[in-house]
Known about the structure:
Layout: E1 10-16, H1 20-32, E2 38-42, H2 50-53, H3 65-68, H4 84-97, E3 104-106, E4 109-116, E5 121-128, E6 131-142, E7 166-168, E8 183-187, H5 191-202, E9 206-211, E10 217-220, H6 225-234, H7 236-260, H8 262-276, H9 284-287, E11 300-303, H10 306-313, E12 316-320, E13 323-327, E14 330-333, E15 338-340, E16 343-346, E17 359-362, E18 365-367, E19 374-375, E20 379-380, E21 386-388, H11 397-418, E22 422-425, E23 434-436, H12 443-446, E24 454-456, H13 467-474, E25 483-486, H14 492-502
Parallel strand pairs: 1-2, 1-6, 2-3, 4-17, 6-21, 7-16, 8-9, 8-16, 9-12, 10-11
Antiparallel strand pairs: 4-5, 5-6, 13-14, 14-15, 17-18, 19-20, 22-25, 23-24
Helix pairs in contact: 1-11, 5-10, 6-7, 7-8, 11-13
Amino acid sequence: MTATATATDHVDVLVVGAGLSGIGAAWHLQDKLPGKSYAILEAREASGGTWDLFRYPGIRSDSDLSTFAYAFKPWTGEKAIADGPDILRYLRETASEAGIDQHIRYGHKVLAASWSSEDARWTVRAEHDGETVELTCGWLFCASGYYRYDEGFRPRFAGEEDFAGRLVHPQHWPEDLDVAGKRIVVIGSGATSVTLVPALARQGAHVTMLQRSPSYVLPLPEKDPIADLLRRVFGDQRGHELTRRKNVARQRWLYSFCQKRPNAARKLIRWVNARQLEGSGVDVDVHFNPKYGPWDQRLCAVPNGDLFRSLRKGDAEIVTAKIDRFTEGGVRLEDGRELEADVIVTATGLNLLIFGGMQFEVDGRPVSIPETMAYKGMMGSGVPNFAFAIGYTNSSWTLKVDLVCEHLCRLLAHMDRCGFDTAMPVNSDPAMEQRPLLDFKAGYVLRALDKLPKAGSREPWHLAMDYKKDVAFLRGPVEDPELRLERRAVRGRDADELQAAAA
């Protein structure tokens, strides 16, 4: 059943997703284009996106909050590397203070969007309470990130049915799980694993981190005394801006150093790890010696070295080996060892789902997302009045989101001034080399590359992973030879005026 559309079901901008990107987009729209109407459709029954969904012990950011927080709202929390609940409170406080929460329609899962050039608008179908509802909008902004919220990635392990204990994926952490005194094997070596292991150890579990291959892990201070000083001297907003600049520069330097001098970066990280593990008996060259280069995948940050501290204290251990099968009492490794476990946590990664799985049509023709190209990392070729937010893989997600939202608002203002109602990126060079959208070797990215838009070999089709370059590019002119701006819809008084002008 499709609900009957009414006048209130049309908005100038429809935002999909009420997480970090969606709340940020709404703030920019209200601030820069106060005359525009908008609504946010959120599939779940709560705002916050990732930070409401993930509830596993110890969940936290892996970026400092001066850059992970919005540019417009200072982070004033005690911790620079913040816990998930603190980040969720920050997001909801942002939405409440600006009245954004009044524009969110919960329980609306967007299914499809159909563009009409004649009307210069999208018709969006969403599922709500078991029914299909329709809304129309002039612009569609997808702020759903790229994680699949209902399902994490978990390979099938031989013998799973034999395991007598509890099997848990971090994306669906059970509220009733008491880990005190339990033997827990955490399978994985990424950001989730290095977060879970010390958190579970603090709750009284004995934890084994079982990894097939190591990741790069770096300790970072949990607090930032320089940020605290800057806020005291210059106030919250100015202090936030200065700290943000400092930390952006640090992120860019570290990434550039790792990419340009990988051998030196590897040696430096190994030296830091060895210092952290002194006296633990943990072999750095076995358990913290990845096969890939630094920053080919994201570096794992551990606040105050908590993972290393757990390993030194003996609350946790680390094993690097391949799994043969699950057994009744735990996990058997290919080398014959068996790890006993009451609980096995499969921190094996995430699944990507671009644009929330939404299906697109343009004038009745289905759009194949993998055949589109990403324009300025925020729009799709051949898809009118559609924008999306995909953050950085090598820096804080929000840095890119703020820039994309600023650019989109300037584009909408320009279109209003010039009388345009349609904006569509068009690639003028069909022979241009196409590249993967994300040049990132993490497993969850590699598994989904064939489902993502493509990037090009030059601007504006090249997706930069450099904040400084994006600042210059996305704060530059909105007019571009490869962005087709038109006036297509003719309605009411507009038609009369055009006819009079023609006469």
